[in-house]
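Retry 2 of 3 after timeout on previous attempt. Resubmitting structure tokens to design endpoint.
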């Protein structure tokens, strides 16, 4: 078709314009077809037709007046009115026994396709998917539009990406971090043990308990009393510190971005998610969805397993609003995009009239990816001459964009209740801080459990030891305490903090010690027994949690 024909068809809306046959090269070839089309048009002039349709708002539906007469409504009948005005015919509307596109369980005669196949109607004014199985029973018109089936579900309260403190990283990243925390302490113990056996320089290995406390303390950015002199051990400590610095930097940045700029995502984005996550879903009975799911040759046939176990349902309703209770109860609605858009828009307008707050009007949301896509058109009985007459007009209507305009003319130009509502402010909710509450609860429960364990061990175990060993245990305890009291201190290490307050302190304290800031750090200014002045770094109170005796 030439560009001139498209322009002409757009200007006159394909209603009163004839196809252009003034090309001398093709005029002879098209003369027979033109004569046939003119003859069909003459036969149709003033004729009364029977038009089949079914309820599929807003594309097609039927209104019954007080006299019981059926009147067709929707986009399909606007297109049919264009044909009626162009070719001068009248029609009556006929509906199938059941509101089905194609019959289920072998009862095709109850469906719209069955009406057309049995020639009970002259054509079907409805947007029917052009499927191979349907083409066995009827002839389809040229393509009118591309039908898209979407999935509508209730808007979740939080994104599928998660919320709270665990949101910045995926779950397998947290597992790897936990594995690193649990394994690095034993690695330090093992490597320092091997070094102490190979290199005889007097430095002992670091036992398992101090190693774990070092790893845990560094994870919380706390100091340590361990002061290794071997380069191997220092490199181990530095490696862990670098790991923690980078990890905390990435975590802090991602947490900030998540709480302020995160994109809202859904659990269901593809049809496969319905099956993998066992989501309950519902679709109209006798619709294309039911046929595609039950057809073994279709890609969506795997969903038939969900129908068998009751997780997928096909329901017959009088209006699309009757699907909303299913969606509110957690089911996913599968239907044409035009129908879902009108359903969501009407629900939004209803809540607006009811003065529902703005933040609560968008109750439902549509998955970002389609359930399926199918080309659609009108249906004719096999070898119907009306198809040859109407197809050029259908082509003009589609190419000029009139069909697309009619499908969306009652909808706003903006997207209805988008996935991302683009709120200007992002206030923290309890769900964002739920992990902090859990950490507090787990920490308190752990501390109570450890305290109870210590009390049990100190009370019952000591009584048992004293009963079995008697005085020998007391003598051994006294000797052990004396041995610890007079152990030799290594002057190469920093002085222990307890030396400031102990009975055998090497420093003179009078209760009025002063502090001094040097290079941004606070130090105690104390005097030694020999009259010198020393600067002792001041530790934060939390550092005492990781104090360990050598």
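Retry 2 succeeded. Sequence:
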């Amino acid at each position: 078709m030439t560009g001139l024909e498209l322009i002409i068809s757009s200007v006159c809306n394909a209603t009163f314009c004839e196809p252009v046959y003034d090309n001398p090269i093709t005029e002879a070839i098209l003369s027979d077809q033109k004569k046939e089309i003119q003859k069909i048009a003459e036969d149709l002039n003033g004729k009364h037709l029977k038009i089949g349709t079914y309820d599929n708002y807003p594309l097609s539906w039927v209104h019954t007046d007080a006299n019981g007469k059926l009147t067709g409504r929707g986009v399909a009948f606007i297109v049919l009115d264009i044909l009626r005005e162009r070719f001068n015919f009248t029609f009556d509307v006929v509906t199938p026994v059941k509101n089905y596109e194609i019959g289920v369980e072998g009862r095709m005669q109850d469906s719209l396709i069955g009406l057309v196949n049995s020639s009970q109607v002259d054509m079907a004014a409805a947007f029917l998917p052009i499927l191979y199985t349907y083409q066995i029973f009827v002839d389809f018109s040229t393509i009118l539009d591309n039908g898209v089936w979407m999935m509508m579900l209730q808007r979740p309260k939080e994104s599928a990406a998660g919320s709270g403190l665990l949101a910045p990283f995926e779950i397998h990243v947290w597992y790897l971090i936990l594995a690193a925390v649990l394994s690095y302490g034993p690695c330090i113990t093992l490597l320092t043990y091997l070094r102490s056996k190979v290199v005889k320089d007097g430095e002992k290995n670091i036992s398992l308990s101090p190693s774990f406390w070092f790893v845990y303390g560094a994870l919380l950015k706390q100091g340590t009393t361990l002061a290794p002199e071997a380069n191997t051990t220092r490199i181990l400590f530095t490696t862990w510190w670098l790991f923690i610095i980078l990890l905390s930097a990435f975590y802090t940045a991602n947490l900030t971005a998540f709480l302020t700029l995160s994109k809202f995502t859904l659990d269901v984005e593809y049809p496969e998610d319905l099956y993998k996550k066992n989501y309950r879903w519902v679709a109209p009975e006798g619709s294309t969805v039911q046929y595609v799911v039950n057809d073994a040759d279709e890609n969506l046939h795997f969903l038939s397993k969900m129908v068998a176990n009751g997780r997928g349902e096909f329901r017959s309703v009088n209006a699309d609003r009757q699907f909303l209770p299913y969606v509110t109860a957690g089911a996913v609605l599968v239907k044409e995009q035009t129908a879902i858009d009108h359903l969501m828009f009407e629900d939004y307008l209803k809540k607006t009239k009811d003065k529902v707050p703005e933040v609560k009007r968008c109750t439902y949301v549509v998955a970002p990816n389609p359930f399926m896509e199918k080309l659609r058109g009108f249906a004719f009985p096999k070898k119907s001459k009306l198809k040859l007459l109407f197809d050029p007009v259908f082509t003009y209507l589609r190419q000029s964009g009139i069909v697309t305009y009619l499908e969306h003319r009652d909808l706003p130009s903006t997207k209805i209740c988008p996935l991302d509502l683009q709120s200007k402010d992002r206030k923290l909710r309890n769900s964002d801080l739920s992990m902090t509450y859990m950490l507090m609860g787990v920490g308190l429960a752990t501390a109570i459990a450890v305290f109870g364990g210590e009390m049990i061990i100190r009370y019952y175990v000591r009584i048992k030891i004293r009963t079995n060993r008697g005085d020998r245990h007391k003598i051994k305890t006294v000797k052990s305490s004396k041995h610890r009291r007079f152990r030799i201190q290594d002057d190469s290490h920093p002085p222990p903090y307890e030396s400031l307050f102990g009975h055998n302190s090497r420093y003179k304290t009078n209760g009025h010690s002063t502090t001094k800031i040097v290079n941004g750090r606070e130090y105690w200014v104390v005097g030694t027994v020999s009259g010198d002045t020393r600067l002792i770094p001041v530790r934060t109170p939390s550092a005492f949690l990781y104090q360990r005796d050598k």
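Attempt log closed. Residues 434-469 form the longest helix (36 residues).
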